């Protein structure tokens, strides 16, 4: 199935009456600053040519991600993007916040999916059949679309945050633990948009090496797939650009 292209799994499920198929993915899991962004997306089966080349957002250049972002928003049957602020990530733990974000993203769809595909690990609570797909953002087009939606949304948010919190370089490293970010964090101290449940932020904040936390060294384009240990548990009209600081919802199916 992998050699047949990343639309095969969705096509097989739909042929067996299990569509529409929604893909879900996140961006910012391994970042120590900024929100966690989770997206769900339902693609039209007829858009294989229009979205040719769509794959994991981390494998695309920033310019290509922006192009696919626009195409996906124009052509998707439905989509929903959920922005989870850093304080919620701290309160719940990054993994639990991620799971809950996935549930909210699927629940926010106007189209009722018959099947949900997740990237890598199983998730319960969608109220419909689901399948965890290893490297799903490379194997399943709808998961790749969700990956692009989440990544571009989050990157734009971090560029906006760079204007609000100058000095940290958020527009460059997007909140991931690069040497430049670590240097700024040590020089300036954490800002409210940092995740205090991450060991490097907690240490600089003077909270000590909190139990269960790790320093995550992911680079910006390692984004959505990077793990981190939490402290706790076009004939189409272009969809209107959302206010990125709020929850971003796809409109009704078109």
For the largest sheet, list the strands in their spatial order. 5-4-1-2-3-6
Point out poorly predicted stretches: 209-220, 222-254
Our measurement of the CA-to-CA distance between the termini, rounded to an integer number of angstroms, reads 29 Å
* Percent strand: 5-15%
Number of helices: 9
Sum up the overall morphology in one term: globular
Number of strands: 6
Order of helices and strands: HEEHEHHEEHHHHHE
Largest sheet: 6 strands, mixed
Q: What is Rg?
A: 18 Å
| Category by helix and strand content | alpha/beta
Mean pLDDT over the full residue set? 85
Percent helix among the residues? 25-40%
What does this structure look like?
The chain is of the alpha/beta class. It contains 9 helices and 6 strands. The protein has helices at residues 8-15, 62-75, 86-92, 94-107, 136-139, 141-164, 170-173, 179-188, 199-204; strands at 21-27, 36-42, 78-84, 115-119, 130-133, 248-249. It has a 6-stranded mixed beta sheet. A hairpin with an 8-residue loop joins strand 1 and strand 2. Helix 2 (62-75) crosses helix 6 and helix 3 crosses helix 4. The protein is globular and about 55 Å long. Residues 209-220 and 222-254 have low confidence and may be disordered.
């Amino acid at each position: 199935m992998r050699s047949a292209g990343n639309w095969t799994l969705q096509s097989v499920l739909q042929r067996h009456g299990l569509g529409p198929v929604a893909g879900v993915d996140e961006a910012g899991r391994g970042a120590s600053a900024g929100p966690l962004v989770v997206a769900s997306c339902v693609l039209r089966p007829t858009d294989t040519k229009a979205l040719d080349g769509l794959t994991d957002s981390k494998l695309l250049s920033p310019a290509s991600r922006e192009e696919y972002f626009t195409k996906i928003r124009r052509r998707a049957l439905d989509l929903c993007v959920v922005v989870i602020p850093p304080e919620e990530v701290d309160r719940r733990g990054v993994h639990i916040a991620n799971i809950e974000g996935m549930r909210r993203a699927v629940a926010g769809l106007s189209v009722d999916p018959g099947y949900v595909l997740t990237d890598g690990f199983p998730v319960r609570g969608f109220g419909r059949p689901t399948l965890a797909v290893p490297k799903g953002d490379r194997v399943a087009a709808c998961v790749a679309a969700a990956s692009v939606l989440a990544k571009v949304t989050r990157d734009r948010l971090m560029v906006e945050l760079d204007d609000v919190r100058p000095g940290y370089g958020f527009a460059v490293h997007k909140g991931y633990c690069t040497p430049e970010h670590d240097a700024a964090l040590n020089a300036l101290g954490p800002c409210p948009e940092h995740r205090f449940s991450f060991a490097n932020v907690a240490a600089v904040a003077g909270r000590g090496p909190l139990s269960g936390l790790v320093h995550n060294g992911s680079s910006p384009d390692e984004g959505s797939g990077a793990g981190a240990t939490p402290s706790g548990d076009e004939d189409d009209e272009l969809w209107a650009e959302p206010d990125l600081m709020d929850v971003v919802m796809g409109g009704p199916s078109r």
